[in-house]
Amino acid sequence: MIEEDLLGRVTANPSILGGKPIVRGMRIPVELILGLLAQGESEEGILDDYPDLEREDIRACLAYARAAIAGDRLEAVHVSEAR
User: What domain range is 44 assigned to?
Assistant: First the structure.
């Protein structure tokens, strides 16, 4: 999966968690997954704890972090309008 496809799995909606980037519209923030990885949690452990997540979602969080740090444009992230 290329990075643009991975970033397409990240969404932001002002009415969900204040517009923080989340995984596929679920109430699972990208920062939570990144924090778990930073603490040494394995991908398998994360997937066990969050059964709705897919391995590509974890990769999408890493791709988002890389793009944000690099200052890349994030057009692939779907931003919804507040309702």
Answer: 3-73
Residue 78 placed within a domain: no
Give the pair of three-digit tokens for residue 74.
């994030």
In a domain, 81, yes or no: no
Q: Count how many residues are written for the chain.
A: 83
Residue 13 lies in a domain: yes
Name the one residue in this structure whose structure tokens are 């002002």: 14
Q: Tell me, rounded to whole angstroms, the distance of Cα 8 from its chain centroid.
A: 9
The model's pTM is: 0.86
Would you state the structure tokens that stand for residue 49, as one six-digit string? Answer: 């704890």
Give pLDDT tens digits along the chain (83 positions): 688 889 989 999 899 999 999 999 999 999 999 999 999 999 999 999 999 999 999 999 999 999 888 887 766 566 655 44
